[in-house]
Hints:
The protein is of the alpha/beta class. The protein has a single domain, classed as Aldolase class I (TIM Barrel, Alpha-Beta Barrel). It has helices at 14-23, 30-40, 60-67, 80-89, 116-128, 141-149, 160-164, 169-187, 203-207, 219-228, 230-246; strands at 8-12, 44-48, 72-76, 93-96, 132-137, 154-158, 191-195, 212-217. The longest helix is centred in the last third of the chain and has 19 residues, at 169-187. It is globular.
Amino acid sequence: MTIPAIPRLGVNLDHVATLRNARGGSHPDPVRAALAAAQAGADGITVHLREDRRHIGDLDLPRIMAATRLPLNLEMAATDEMTEIACHLSPHAICLVPERRAERTTEGGLDVVGDFARLSRIVPKLAAAGMRVSLFIGPDADQVRAAHQVAAHVVELHTGAYGEAAVGPARADELRRLTEAAKLADEIGLEVHAGHGLTFDNVGSVAALPQVAELNIGHFLVGEALFVGLVAAIQEMRALIAAGRSGQSS
């Protein structure tokens, strides 16, 4: 397993679709956003097809895949319906995430330990269909080990608690948890990704973790795009990721 010198950046387009769906119709189009992400140098596109279809819809997926050669990372709940959709579309990668109807966004990581039997069935099925399978988990050693046991290829560490922690001891403690989980995952042969709540101000320390191969960032980039444009926002994030990995971030 080769870890890139600079972590890849996957751009999540869910909230382009959120804005479209607020009024209905077709504008703004996530496909146009995917093309802008490719222009800006993104390494991949991430979308979450939720069971309630609150942002990205079924018809968006093949359109995005056809519009750009960037690999598509499909986030989804570990259900039979979503597994069938994924096997039909065959995107580059799947990231299994927890999902509750009442949540505004994904609030925590999968409980791989508690849902071991179901994930042991779904993960190999997705992998057998040719997709790389990632599990979105909190930075917890037991969850990392369980992800390996169900035959996932990748763990994506939930950085939400880190992003929300106040600068100082609280954030340092969350970064320590991420550091330890990333090291363990790498040691047992899992590729390490990270995402959720990452911004210009906090991405550097996560990018600096030597085991992290990819960062998936969406809400912040779409919000920042309102002020500077999506291409500029992505290019700035890529620069900060590179600076973080090289030790030049503040």
